[in-house]
Amino acid sequence: MKLANFFRAALVIGTLFAGLTQSAQASIYTYTGDTTGGPTYNRPLEDLSDVSGIGTDVNYSTFTFTVDTSGEYSFLQTTDQYDGVLYIYENSFNPADPLTNALGGSDDLVAPWTSGFAGPLDAGISYVLVTTSFYNGDAGAFSVTISGPGLVTVSAVPEPSTYLMLALGLAAIGYTQRRKLQR
Protein backbone atom coordinates (compact mmCIF):
# COMPACT_ATOMS: atom_id res chain seq x y z
CA MET A 1 0.00 0.00 0.00
CA LYS A 2 2.81 2.40 0.89
CA LEU A 3 4.54 1.59 -2.42
CA ALA A 4 1.35 2.41 -4.37
CA ASN A 5 1.09 5.77 -2.56
CA PHE A 6 4.75 6.46 -3.36
CA PHE A 7 4.17 5.82 -7.08
CA ARG A 8 0.98 7.89 -7.03
CA ALA A 9 2.88 10.79 -5.38
CA ALA A 10 5.75 10.41 -7.88
CA LEU A 11 3.24 10.50 -10.76
CA VAL A 12 1.62 13.70 -9.41
CA ILE A 13 5.00 15.40 -8.83
CA GLY A 14 6.23 14.32 -12.28
CA THR A 15 3.08 15.75 -13.87
CA LEU A 16 3.57 19.03 -12.04
CA PHE A 17 7.18 19.29 -13.16
CA ALA A 18 6.20 18.42 -16.73
CA GLY A 19 3.60 21.22 -16.61
CA LEU A 20 6.20 23.63 -15.25
CA THR A 21 8.61 22.70 -18.01
CA GLN A 22 5.97 23.28 -20.67
CA SER A 23 4.89 26.64 -19.29
CA ALA A 24 8.50 27.74 -18.93
CA GLN A 25 8.83 27.50 -22.71
CA ALA A 26 6.00 30.00 -23.17
CA SER A 27 6.61 33.71 -23.34
CA ILE A 28 4.77 36.32 -21.30
CA TYR A 29 4.98 40.01 -22.15
CA THR A 30 3.26 42.78 -20.17
CA TYR A 31 2.99 46.42 -21.07
CA THR A 32 1.25 49.31 -19.36
CA GLY A 33 -0.07 52.64 -20.48
CA ASP A 34 -2.71 55.30 -19.97
CA THR A 35 -5.45 56.43 -22.34
CA THR A 36 -6.00 59.71 -20.50
CA GLY A 37 -5.51 62.59 -22.91
CA GLY A 38 -4.87 60.20 -25.79
CA PRO A 39 -6.32 60.47 -29.28
CA THR A 40 -10.01 59.62 -29.78
CA TYR A 41 -12.00 57.61 -32.29
CA ASN A 42 -15.39 55.97 -32.75
CA ARG A 43 -14.78 52.41 -31.61
CA PRO A 44 -16.44 49.36 -33.18
CA LEU A 45 -18.78 47.03 -31.37
CA GLU A 46 -17.13 44.08 -29.64
CA ASP A 47 -18.27 41.66 -32.37
CA LEU A 48 -17.02 44.08 -35.09
CA SER A 49 -20.50 44.24 -36.65
CA ASP A 50 -20.70 48.05 -36.60
CA VAL A 51 -19.28 51.22 -35.08
CA SER A 52 -20.87 51.94 -31.71
CA GLY A 53 -22.77 55.13 -30.92
CA ILE A 54 -21.89 54.70 -27.24
CA GLY A 55 -18.21 54.47 -28.11
CA THR A 56 -18.06 57.81 -29.92
CA ASP A 57 -14.93 59.87 -29.31
CA VAL A 58 -13.36 57.42 -26.85
CA ASN A 59 -9.68 57.74 -25.94
CA TYR A 60 -7.40 54.97 -27.12
CA SER A 61 -3.80 53.76 -27.05
CA THR A 62 -2.07 51.49 -29.57
CA PHE A 63 0.68 48.90 -29.21
CA THR A 64 2.35 47.39 -32.30
CA PHE A 65 4.14 44.06 -32.06
CA THR A 66 5.11 40.83 -33.83
CA VAL A 67 5.69 37.30 -32.56
CA ASP A 68 8.55 35.00 -33.53
CA THR A 69 6.54 31.76 -33.28
CA SER A 70 3.15 31.01 -34.83
CA GLY A 71 0.56 29.66 -32.43
CA GLU A 72 -2.20 30.42 -29.96
CA TYR A 73 -1.71 33.61 -27.91
CA SER A 74 -3.85 35.00 -25.13
CA PHE A 75 -4.42 38.63 -24.21
CA LEU A 76 -5.60 39.99 -20.87
CA GLN A 77 -6.26 43.67 -20.26
CA THR A 78 -6.96 45.17 -16.85
CA THR A 79 -7.89 48.80 -16.43
CA ASP A 80 -7.85 51.26 -13.60
CA GLN A 81 -11.52 50.80 -12.65
CA TYR A 82 -13.04 51.90 -15.98
CA ASP A 83 -14.85 49.75 -18.51
CA GLY A 84 -11.99 48.87 -20.89
CA VAL A 85 -12.23 47.30 -24.34
CA LEU A 86 -9.39 45.58 -26.21
CA TYR A 87 -9.09 45.06 -29.98
CA ILE A 88 -6.49 43.39 -32.19
CA TYR A 89 -5.70 44.40 -35.77
CA GLU A 90 -3.52 42.75 -38.39
CA ASN A 91 -0.89 44.88 -40.19
CA SER A 92 -2.30 48.32 -39.31
CA PHE A 93 -4.93 50.29 -37.42
CA ASN A 94 -6.74 53.27 -38.93
CA PRO A 95 -8.87 55.18 -36.38
CA ALA A 96 -10.88 56.75 -39.23
CA ASP A 97 -11.87 53.24 -40.41
CA PRO A 98 -11.87 51.05 -37.26
CA LEU A 99 -13.40 47.96 -38.89
CA THR A 100 -10.62 47.54 -41.49
CA ASN A 101 -8.00 44.92 -40.49
CA ALA A 102 -9.82 44.20 -37.20
CA LEU A 103 -9.47 40.58 -36.08
CA GLY A 104 -11.43 40.69 -32.83
CA GLY A 105 -12.37 42.55 -29.70
CA SER A 106 -13.31 41.95 -26.10
CA ASP A 107 -15.26 43.73 -23.40
CA ASP A 108 -16.03 42.60 -19.83
CA LEU A 109 -14.11 39.32 -19.62
CA VAL A 110 -14.39 38.84 -15.85
CA ALA A 111 -15.66 42.21 -14.69
CA PRO A 112 -16.13 45.62 -16.32
CA TRP A 113 -12.44 46.42 -15.80
CA THR A 114 -11.01 43.31 -17.52
CA SER A 115 -11.15 42.16 -21.11
CA GLY A 116 -9.31 39.58 -23.12
CA PHE A 117 -9.32 36.90 -25.76
CA ALA A 118 -7.17 34.18 -27.31
CA GLY A 119 -6.42 33.41 -30.91
CA PRO A 120 -3.85 32.27 -33.43
CA LEU A 121 -1.07 34.63 -34.50
CA ASP A 122 1.41 34.14 -37.34
CA ALA A 123 5.13 34.75 -36.92
CA GLY A 124 6.48 37.86 -38.62
CA ILE A 125 3.09 39.56 -39.07
CA SER A 126 2.62 43.00 -37.53
CA TYR A 127 -0.29 43.23 -35.07
CA VAL A 128 -1.76 46.28 -33.36
CA LEU A 129 -3.55 46.11 -30.00
CA VAL A 130 -5.93 48.98 -29.34
CA THR A 131 -6.83 49.70 -25.72
CA THR A 132 -9.88 51.89 -25.28
CA SER A 133 -13.01 52.26 -23.18
CA PHE A 134 -16.66 51.36 -23.55
CA TYR A 135 -17.95 54.84 -22.77
CA ASN A 136 -16.98 58.30 -23.95
CA GLY A 137 -15.09 60.07 -21.18
CA ASP A 138 -13.74 56.89 -19.56
CA ALA A 139 -9.95 56.79 -19.59
CA GLY A 140 -7.08 55.84 -17.34
CA ALA A 141 -4.26 53.43 -16.66
CA PHE A 142 -4.22 49.92 -18.11
CA SER A 143 -2.07 46.82 -18.26
CA VAL A 144 -2.07 44.21 -21.05
CA THR A 145 -0.44 40.78 -20.73
CA ILE A 146 0.29 38.71 -23.84
CA SER A 147 1.21 35.06 -23.45
CA GLY A 148 1.95 32.38 -26.00
CA PRO A 149 4.53 30.02 -27.44
CA GLY A 150 6.92 32.67 -28.78
CA LEU A 151 8.59 35.94 -27.99
CA VAL A 152 6.75 39.22 -28.47
CA THR A 153 8.82 41.83 -30.29
CA VAL A 154 7.79 45.44 -29.88
CA SER A 155 7.83 47.53 -33.03
CA ALA A 156 9.27 50.98 -32.50
CA VAL A 157 6.81 53.39 -34.07
CA PRO A 158 8.08 56.97 -33.97
CA GLU A 159 5.80 59.70 -32.67
CA PRO A 160 4.73 62.39 -35.16
CA SER A 161 7.00 64.87 -33.35
CA THR A 162 9.96 62.61 -34.18
CA TYR A 163 9.16 62.87 -37.89
CA LEU A 164 8.89 66.67 -37.53
CA MET A 165 12.30 66.85 -35.87
CA LEU A 166 13.79 64.66 -38.61
CA ALA A 167 12.29 66.89 -41.33
CA LEU A 168 13.57 70.05 -39.64
CA GLY A 169 17.04 68.52 -39.28
CA LEU A 170 17.15 67.53 -42.94
CA ALA A 171 15.95 71.00 -43.97
CA ALA A 172 18.72 72.59 -41.87
CA ILE A 173 21.36 70.35 -43.46
CA GLY A 174 20.03 71.17 -46.93
CA TYR A 175 20.06 74.90 -46.18
CA THR A 176 23.64 74.70 -44.87
CA GLN A 177 24.82 72.78 -47.93
CA ARG A 178 23.13 75.26 -50.26
CA ARG A 179 24.83 78.19 -48.51
CA LYS A 180 28.23 76.46 -48.85
CA LEU A 181 27.68 75.93 -52.60
CA GLN A 182 26.71 79.59 -53.14
CA ARG A 183 30.04 80.81 -51.70
UniProtKB/TrEMBL annotation:
Instruction: Please tell me the species this chain comes from.
Output: Pseudoduganella buxea
What superkingdom does the record give?
Answer: Bacteria
Domain Ice-binding protein C-terminal as annotated: residue spans? 156-179
Q: List UniProt keywords, sorted A-Z.
A: Signal
User: What's the protein here called?
Assistant: Ice-binding protein C-terminal domain-containing protein
Q: Where is the signal peptide?
A: 1-26
**InterPro entries the UniProt entry points to:** Ice-binding_C
